[in-house]
Structures are given as structure tokens and as C-alpha cells.
Write a structure and sequence with these properties.
By secondary structure, the protein is α+β, with helices and mostly antiparallel strands. It is built from 11 helices and 6 strands. The protein has a 4-stranded antiparallel beta sheet, with no helix packed on it. It has a two-stranded antiparallel sheet with strand order 3-6. Residues 1-28 and 452-465 have low confidence and may be disordered.
Length: 465
């Protein structure tokens, strides 16, 4: 003989179903865009990329300076004390002052290595800019992933706590029925086992929240407050255009990693040419203007001073003749470095194409998965309702009700996670083509709900386009 669940039990089961309605956060107060803006100035990884770009930008003026004239000044002053004896002349003591100064202007006329160094510096700046764009996209993905993980973890805690409450009440009812002689000890033991398992899942969910919160704090540098979650009606968009080939084509040319690798090849090309250019002569124009003043002398019998000023313009040609083989080794080293850069460029293109294909497929799969899970959740509600009625009529046993409720709980968790994963894969797809920006963060932020979300049937209703 079986008994129907008490009214109190049905109430707690309803609370359980409401709790696992994972689209209903409470007391939300922070959104994705707020934390992204905060991370721009607090994330050390992104700050490192920013400083790397600023450092690289100084290479251009440094390289350009090698083509500009240089002006140097040298000067010295001294005082000489001496005793001099000349033939048939008494020994004399003489002291005098000497001042010298010179200005030298050097204007490079032909330095192939310096010209190539300037072009190499420009390519290095392009490489650093691409790496900065990559770091910016990576920051968006890291913040979004950490944000979504914490929201999902918080929902799981709420759902697990509601399940614990419902199962504890069901355990109380099962014990009461057993004492009344209308239920078996098996029902009590099975319900007690499920309640203990739910408590363990609640503890695990709490640990997941702490872990995900720590991951988000490592990026933002501050303890995140309660987070806003997706609206119940939020749509997971399909890729546009719907042709994967167009995404792959853009990825192999516009992905920041590909751009950085391409710039690295250009840098290696210029470095190879610069190494070869060391064999060429250099031509400089050198202009000097100087003065030499002496108040006396010690070598002539007649003590007289001098004051000389001179100007000189010359062309200096420097031709390398022999360096012990260092230049040959330098050229070989640059050639191998260029080959490595080309291999890295090919690898970056293939990885970008792979990322685009994987993310494109993941978005489509995620949208289909959401649709299937929504159907499963609706069917799960019917199954729970039918098992409860059958349990009351004696057609179902206690484990049937527990299994249907557990299956519904698990399916709703999967649906909640799938909604966030589909949106994240859409961001990864844009990142693969180099199109991910702060505008996408703001677009997702519009899908977040501040405050509790109303739902007529307590089921997340994510539409699929």
C-alpha cells in the first residue's frame, strides 16, 4: 500500500523546482560590462601587453634617429708648469694655459643597415599592435568565461539547496509513512540516500562558487558582487553569415595571432637584409669647427701665445674587410630565424582556421542543444507530475518520483549551462576572425537581467532563432 505525498511535501517539491529554475537570480547588482571595464585597468596580463606595445612604439624614433645628424662637443682646459734651459740662455720658469674645444656634426649619407632597421622597427610596432589586440580579445574571453562560470555556479547552489530542502521534507514524509505501516523501509533508505547525495552536491556547488569567484577576482582585482544573469527570453544567435568558409577565410587573414605572426615574418625579412647590409660600406659627411688657445709655450725661446680656430668638412667612407666570420654566422642565424617565423605564421593560420571551424560548429551545436534541452525540461515537468500522481494512486513507487525529479534537476542544469556556453562560443567565433570587441560585451550585457526574472512555468524559456 502506498500513500500520496503530503501537501507540505508537494510544497517543498514546488520550491525545489522553483530553485532549479536557473534563470531566476536574486539580488543581482553587477553586470558583465562593469567588470570588463574594471579589468582593463586591473588585469596584470592585459597591462603587460599594454606596456609591451608602448615599449615597441619607441623603436621607430630610435631607429629613425640613426638617419639624422648628430652633433657632439668636446672641450678641455689645462695649465702647464715648466722649467726650460736654452743654449746660452739662463734657465727660465714658464707656466701657461691651454684651452681646446671642437664641435663635430656627422650626417649619415648612406647607411643601408640603418634604413632597413627603420623598416624593421615599423614591422615590430605592427607585431606589437597585433599582440595587443590579441590580449584585448583574450581579456574579453577570460572575463566573460569567469563571469558565466560564477553565474552558473551560483544557480547550481540555489538549485542544490532547494533540492536538499525538498528531499529532507520527502524523507520526513517517508519516515512518517513507514511508522504508520503504509511504506517500506526501502522507501526511507532510498530517500535518505538521495537526500545525503543532494547535500554532497550542495557542498560541491558551494566550492564551485568559491573557485569561480576567485578566478574572476584574479582578473578584476576585486571581490565580485552578486552577478546579473541572462534574461529568460535571451536568444542565442546563430552565426551570420551562416557559411563556415567565410568565417575561416576571415580567420586566416584577420586573426590577431595571424597578423602578429605575419608581422614577425616581415621583421625577420628585414633582419636578414640588415645582416647582409653589414657587408656594404657606409658614407658619412663630417663637419668640425674647433679652437685651440695657448697663452704661451715652453719649447720656444720666445714666449708667445697662440689662438687658432679652424673649420673642416670631410666625407668618411667605411668599408668592412674582415671580421673573423662573425658576419657570415649572423646572416645564417637571421636566415634560420626567418624560416622559423614563416613556420610560425603557417601554424597561426591553421590554428585560426581550426578555431573558427570549432567555434562555428559549437555555436550551431549549442543552439540545437538548447532547443533539445528545453523540450527535455518540458517533458521532465510532465514526467514529475505523472509520477507524483501515479505514486498517489499506487501505480508508481517512491524511486520513480525521485528519479524523475533528479532527472529534471540535471536537465535544467544542463540547459542553464548550455545557454551561457552558446553565447561564449559566439564570442570565440568572433575572436577567431579578429572581430571581437567591447561592443560585443555591451551586446551581451543587454541580455542580462537586473533583479529576479519572472517566469510563468518556472522554466527558462530560451528561444532559438
Amino acid at each position: 500500500m502506498t500513500v500520496a505525498p503530503s501537501r507540505s511535501t508537494r510544497g517543498y517539491v514546488s520550491l525545489f523546482l522553483l530553485g532549479i529554475c536557473l534563470g531566476a537570480p536574486i539580488a543581482q547588482s553587477a553586470d558583465l560590462n562593469d567588470l570588463y571595464v574594471l579589468s582593463l585597468t586591473s588585469d596584470p596580463t592585459f597591462q603587460s601587453a599594454s606596456f609591451a606595445l608602448q615599449t615597441a612604439r619607441q623603436q621607430r624614433p630610435e631607429a629613425f634617429s640613426a638617419l639624422l645628424p648628430t652633433l657632439i662637443a668636446n672641450g678641455s682646459g689645462s695649465r702647464t708648469f715648466g722649467r726650460t734651459k736654452y743654449t746660452n740662455v739662463p734657465e727660465v720658469n714658464r707656466s701657461f694655459d691651454t684651452d681646446q674645444w671642437v664641435l663635430q656634426l656627422t650626417q649619415p649619407l648612406f647607411r643601408a643597415e640603418s634604413l632597413l632597421a627603420l623598416s624593421e622597427a615599423r614591422a615590430s610596432v605592427e607585431q606589437a599592435a597585433a599582440l595587443y589586440a590579441l590580449a584585448e580579445q583574450d581579456l574579453i574571453l577570460r572575463v566573460t568565461r569567469a563571469y558565466f562560470d560564477e553565474v552558473v555556479a551560483e544557480h547550481h547552489v540555489t538549485a542544490a539547496l532547494a533540492q536538499v530542502t525538498a528531499l529532507n521534507e520527502q524523507l520526513h514524509a517517508a519516515r512518517h509513512s513507514f511508522e504508520a505501516g503504509v511504506a517500506s523501509v526501502t522507501d526511507v533508505d532510498e530517500t535518505e540516500s538521495r537526500a545525503a547525495l543532494a547535500e554532497a552536491q550542495h557542498v560541491a556547488a558551494m566550492n564551485d562558487v568559491e573557485s569561480s569567484r576567485a578566478a574572476l577576482e584574479a582578473i578584476t582585482g576585486a571581490t565580485p558582487p552578486l552577478l546579473n544573469a541572462l534574461k529568460a527570453e535571451a536568444v542565442s544567435p546563430r552565426p551570420s553569415p551562416s557559411d563556415v568558409a567565410s568565417w575561416v577565410s576571415r580567420a586566416v587573414t584577420d586573426n590577431p595571432s595571424v597578423k602578429a605572426a605575419n608581422a614577425a615574418v616581415t621583421v625577420a625579412d628585414y633582419e636578414l637584409d640588415r645582416s647582409r647590409a653589414q657587408r656594404l660600406p657606409t658614407v658619412d659627411m663630417v663637419a668640425t669647427y674647433g679652437g685651440n688657445y695657448s697663452s704661451g709655450n715652453i719649447s720656444e725661446p720666445s714666449n708667445f701665445g697662440t689662438n687658432v680656430k679652424d673649420r673642416q668638412v670631410s666625407i668618411q667612407v667605411t668599408v668592412p674587410l674582415f671580421d673573423g666570420g662573425a658576419l657570415h654566422a649572423h646572416v645564417a642565424e637571421a636566415r634560420y630565424r626567418r624560416s622559423k617565423a614563416q613556420a610560425d605564421f603557417s601554424a597561426a593560420q591553421r590554428q585560426a582556421a581550426l578555431s573558427a571551424r570549432q567555434s562555428f560548429a559549437a555555436v550551431l551545436s549549442g543552439v540545437s542543444q538548447i532547443h533539445a534541452l528545453e523540450t527535455a525540461v518540458a517533458a521532465g515537468h510532465s514526467a514529475v507530475k505523472g509520477n507524483r500522481i501515479g505514486y498517489g494512486l499506487g501505480l508508481r513507487i517512491n524511486s520513480d518520483v525521485l528519479n524523475s525529479e533528479q532527472q529534471l534537476y540535471s536537465t535544467m542544469q544542463d540547459l542553464d549551462k548550455a545557454r551561457y556556453d552558446a553565447l561564449f562560443e559566439g564570442l570565440k567565433l568572433k575572436a577567431a576572425t579578429g572581430e571581437l570587441s567591447s561592443d560585443d560585451v555591451r551586446a551581451i550585457n543587454l541580455l542580462l537581467q537586473i533583479g529576479p526574472i519572472e517566469s510563468d512555468n518556472n522554466v527558462p524559456t530560451t528561444r532559438t532563432p
